[in-house]
Amino acid sequence: MTSETTETLQLHDTRTATADPRRWLALPVLLTGAFLPILDFNVVNLALPAIRDNLGATASEVQFVISAYAATYAVFLITGGRLGDLFGRRRMFLTGVAGFTIASVLCGIAWSPTVLVAGRILQGLTATVMAPQVLASIRVLFPAAEQGRALGLYGATFGLANICGQVLGGVLVSAHPFGLAWQAIFLINVPIGLVAFVGGVLYLADSRAEHAQRLDIGGVILLSLTLGLLVYPLIEGRELGWPAWIIAMLLASPLMLAAFVRFEARLQARGGDPLVALHLLRNSDFVIGLVMALAFYMLSSFYLTFAVYLQSGLHQSPLAAGIATLPFATGFFVSSLASPLVMQWLGARTLTLGFALQVTGFGIVMLSVGGALPQSLAFGLICGGLGFGTVMPAVIKAVIGSIDPRHAGLASGMMISTFQIGAALGVALIGGVFYGLLGPQPQAEDYAHAFTIALGCNVALLAVGGWLSLWLPREPAAG
């Protein structure tokens, strides 16, 4: 879930909100609910080497710490929004905040990799109950004249969460507050969650949709099985030596996907509310957008591989590794603020520019790590960050323009879920390439080589995304 959602809703939501007298007190509480899921996705990367050493985790278990969270978020995000529509957004927001806080405690006290992964799954699940209520509540609480300002602060929250995730992770793991190491990155959520919960009780008004969509439990189950049958073998297969049952799981994944599509089609034909609006897939521009989103967000593997390269390969402290990623986060933040103006100027070609910046920036990073362009790492990261922040808000705005405004919410939900599926697959596939190249006793040069090859996979995917962006019309067609 990212700031591009704000653009979508500014384009397509024309309802007049009722001015709640406590709305500006409620806004920081709501923004905390948007801040926490993004922070927790980013902050964990810098702690992964410490987690692996302390818990004796395998490479695949480290990958699951990220991919389990992303996959759970992808599957349940749309359902979380529907829960708020059905049962009240205030109630679901408070439930999500409380659940996320409890899940963070479970992660912080985890005594084994299995318990930590279970905690991460619970974090992802409760985040999907909490996060969708934020934007929906802003739309209801604020009148039209104030929505632009509130949505601007909402969008800025994501850039701030990315920067804080990089810095805070390094600070907490290095500082050992109260004698804690990696545990602190999860336990820091407890006081934040408690403040958000109390603030929600005091200031947040309740609302729900007049015509809420029903829950698609069958779709959730089938999509969960599809992703599980794909992601689990991709991560575990390498360490287990690809036994027959792992291969069977991989082969079963497309069959489960076919069963999911068939179930959704039947549900839609009966007049139900499917998790995925299949009729949108008849729009070629929208399908291109989904493929771009998938390729783009597989870059999430970069956070994992870069953190491991810096700490295990170059023996940098978590704090130093966090500072080393700041150029990327800063570039992302700056371009996120500038992207609305760039989109007005370039339209859909903003995506082409963003992908080109990423290919150039990460190409420079590869050359720097490989020794061909020493002293250019920071410049490459800034360039990559500028491209990332340019694509992030542009991809949905460009693609949603091809969708009937009545279906903008459905299309946005599908696009954001695709982002998270891309994150899970990126960690599974490209993370697998990275760890496969390291070998049993890796040296510093092995980490550099593995990181360069893994990032090269990302660059290739980003180049595909840039090529696909050329197929989008310069001025998105309506209808």
TrEMBL record:
<feature type="transmembrane region" description="Helical">
    <location>
        <begin position="24"/>
        <end position="44"/>
    </location>
</feature>
<dbReference type="GO" id="GO:0022857">
    <property type="term" value="F:transmembrane transporter activity"/>
</dbReference>
<feature type="transmembrane region" description="Helical">
    <location>
        <begin position="408"/>
        <end position="435"/>
    </location>
</feature>
<dbReference type="Pfam" id="PF07690">
    <property type="entry name" value="MFS_1"/>
</dbReference>
<feature type="transmembrane region" description="Helical">
    <location>
        <begin position="117"/>
        <end position="141"/>
    </location>
</feature>
<dbReference type="InterPro" id="IPR036259">
    <property type="entry name" value="MFS_trans_sf"/>
</dbReference>
<protein>
    <submittedName>
        <fullName>MFS transporter</fullName>
    </submittedName>
</protein>
<feature type="transmembrane region" description="Helical">
    <location>
        <begin position="377"/>
        <end position="396"/>
    </location>
</feature>
<dbReference type="InterPro" id="IPR020846">
    <property type="entry name" value="MFS_dom"/>
</dbReference>
<feature type="transmembrane region" description="Helical">
    <location>
        <begin position="181"/>
        <end position="205"/>
    </location>
</feature>
<dbReference type="GO" id="GO:0016020">
    <property type="term" value="C:membrane"/>
</dbReference>
<feature type="transmembrane region" description="Helical">
    <location>
        <begin position="447"/>
        <end position="472"/>
    </location>
</feature>
<feature type="domain" description="Major facilitator superfamily (MFS) profile">
    <location>
        <begin position="26"/>
        <end position="477"/>
    </location>
</feature>
<feature type="transmembrane region" description="Helical">
    <location>
        <begin position="93"/>
        <end position="111"/>
    </location>
</feature>
<keyword id="KW-0812">Transmembrane</keyword>
<feature type="transmembrane region" description="Helical">
    <location>
        <begin position="217"/>
        <end position="235"/>
    </location>
</feature>
<keyword id="KW-1133">Transmembrane helix</keyword>
<feature type="transmembrane region" description="Helical">
    <location>
        <begin position="64"/>
        <end position="81"/>
    </location>
</feature>
<feature type="transmembrane region" description="Helical">
    <location>
        <begin position="350"/>
        <end position="371"/>
    </location>
</feature>
<dbReference type="InterPro" id="IPR011701">
    <property type="entry name" value="MFS"/>
</dbReference>
<keyword id="KW-0472">Membrane</keyword>
<feature type="transmembrane region" description="Helical">
    <location>
        <begin position="241"/>
        <end position="265"/>
    </location>
</feature>
<feature type="transmembrane region" description="Helical">
    <location>
        <begin position="318"/>
        <end position="338"/>
    </location>
</feature>
<feature type="transmembrane region" description="Helical">
    <location>
        <begin position="153"/>
        <end position="175"/>
    </location>
</feature>
<feature type="transmembrane region" description="Helical">
    <location>
        <begin position="286"/>
        <end position="306"/>
    </location>
</feature>
